Amino acid sequence: MLFLINKKASGIFPKHKKGVKEYISVAKGKLRVKLGNETYDLEEGDSMYYEADIEHSFTNIGDEDCHYYLVIDSNNVYL
Prior knowledge:
Blueprint: E1 2-5, E2 10-13, E3 21-28, E4 30-35, E5 38-43, E6 47-51, E7 56-60, E8 66-73
Antiparallel strand pairs: 1-8, 2-7, 3-6, 3-8, 4-5, 4-7
């Protein structure tokens, strides 16, 4: 899915069940991804994958709206 986060906006997301993975790719702008205590700054064309069983947040750190693709894979969720 393609998402848009406005200039200087952010969002905090609760941890998912163990086994959920997220894949993110920045199509336009700059995005800060915080996973627990780790922080990653992504720019247009950057992608990353992470286990989403920790609190995570996205913050637009650019001077324009940020467009990013996010895929949530819950095929291997542990019950």
